[in-house]
Amino acid sequence: MAQHDKLKAAASAAYVFTLPLIEIASTRTRGLVAGSRMNSFGHMRRLADHTARAVTTPNNDTFYSTAQVDLSDGPVTITLPATGERYISLQLMDAYTNSFAILGTRTTGGGGGTFTLVGPNDAAEGRNVVRAPTNHVWALARILVDGPPDAEAAKAVQQGISMQGPAMETPGPFAARSAPWQEYFASAAQLMKLNPPMVTDRAILEAMAPLGLDDFDPSRFSDEEAAAIEAGVAEAKAASKRGGLSGAGFTEGWSYPSARLGDFGQDYPLRGAVAVSGLAALPPAEAMYMRAQGDLRGALFDGTKAWRLHFPADGHLPVNSFWSLSLYEATPDGQFFFTDNPINRYAIGDRTEGLTHNDDGSLDIWIGAAEPEGDRRTNWLPAPAGPFALFMRAYLPKPELLDGGYRIPRIVEA
Question: Which residues lie below 8 Å from residue 153, measured CB to CB, with a gap of 6+?
Answer without folding.
Answer: none
